Amino acid sequence: MEKKKVIIHVNDMAGWMKMFTGLDNFLNDVGQEKAEVCVVVNGPGVCGCPTAINLENNAQALAKCGSNRPEKLMVQVRELHARGVTFIACRNALRKHFITEDMIESVFVLVNSSITEMIERQQEGYAYIKM
């Protein structure tokens, strides 16, 4: 059976919580073995990518992102990554938010352009869902 392939696009902090709920429901419905999921993060959504301590230690990034980051965000990201979900962050958005690559949680794959990544994945048959 062919896997259900989906890109979930998170471009702000509110999108993270929506993504966690929607993705959990999707994986429980179809089964993780029948799903190929890619979460693409860009825009202000990249403020969810750094580890909390790294964000707090970078004044410019903290000023740009604020401190309204959900405390358990990275725990949930790691759990989904362990279930086979791929997380992708946009380098352009990271730079705009003063987030350096060494601040990013190790589960993230970095791409130069998230838009290019989403277009290429859609050409490969991925469905697109915006959170």
TrEMBL record:
Domain of life according to the entry: Bacteria
PANTHER family, per the entry: BLR3518 PROTEIN
Name of this protein: Uncharacterized protein
